[in-house]
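Quick one from the shared queue. A colleague (R.T.) flagged Heterokaryon incompatibility domain-containing protein as missing a structural entry in our internal table.

Convert sequence to structure tokens.
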Amino acid sequence: PLRLLDTSTGRLCDREAQITAFMESTEYKDLLYSSMMHAPLRTDPIEEAVEKYFSWVMLSHRWESEEPLLRDVRDKVVYDLDPVGTVVKLQSFCRITRDAGYRWAWSDTCCIDQNNNVELQRSVNSMFVWYRHSALTIIYLSDVPPSAQSGALANSAWNTRGWTVQEFLAPNVVLFYQADWALYLDDRSCNHKKSVAIMRELEDSTSIDAQALVAFRPGMSDAREKLQWASTRVTTLQEDIAYSLFGIFGVHLPVIYGEAKQNALGRLLQEVVAQSGDISALDWVGKSSQFNSCLPADITSYKSLP
């Protein structure tokens, strides 16, 4: 990611600041000493140490009102901010990440400059990869109360959002936390993708088969099935229902907020059909798009028929 939160200091760091922190760390000094003392130079220990040091944790959550943005945390210590509203969520996320042994944390609220179109476009097109290569993705269910029973995850608002589809498909390791930041169903395993109960609950509520939930691979195969996964989802910005699928299909397209959802969805579908030859995306029922009359105006056209 372009910038990350340093959970040890609570400060936001760009790539240059991360590298500076590494060069001042004991890990770097140990590597330097080891390389001088041993010949020939072995690169494997260096790669492992660098990968471990720079590993990061992603946050998946439902946006609430007045989330702390980049301008609110830049040049500040996250832990020193007034613990009110959604700031508490960010602080808790950083603490959980730090206590789990990870130095770097990423939240879409404050780690992306929403006013920089170039950065926003790069971030949207890179999001899936960032989640995929994260050491851990923490999924925060703000509306699931303490001691919730099985079924609460399925009914969470998090499970209705468009962006969250890729946020639980992409990572290899995920942990679900409820409102009080206790682990969902008190499942203390190191990866909830290995929890039969949690994956069954997700499978039943999303209609995404268990194999895809646990080991999803992006691509354009089974296009209509992937569109069906998103057909009941909602996003705050209308274009995001298409943009949130870029990573799932493995495509890179321009991000043009203001183009309207018919154009955004149309460009995505056109690209998928053209590149893959999979015409299952043309199997839909509903209103046709002004972008292309062969395509639907809304992703809800891919819902399962009665």
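The chain has a mean pLDDT of 95.
Residues 217-305 form one domain.
Added to the table.
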